Amino acid sequence: MTDIDAARAAKRELVKRFAGDPRVSGIGISGDAAHLVIKVNLVNAQEVPEDLPLKVFGFPVDVEEVGRIGAH
Question: What three-state secondary structure class fits 53?
Answer without folding.
Answer: coil
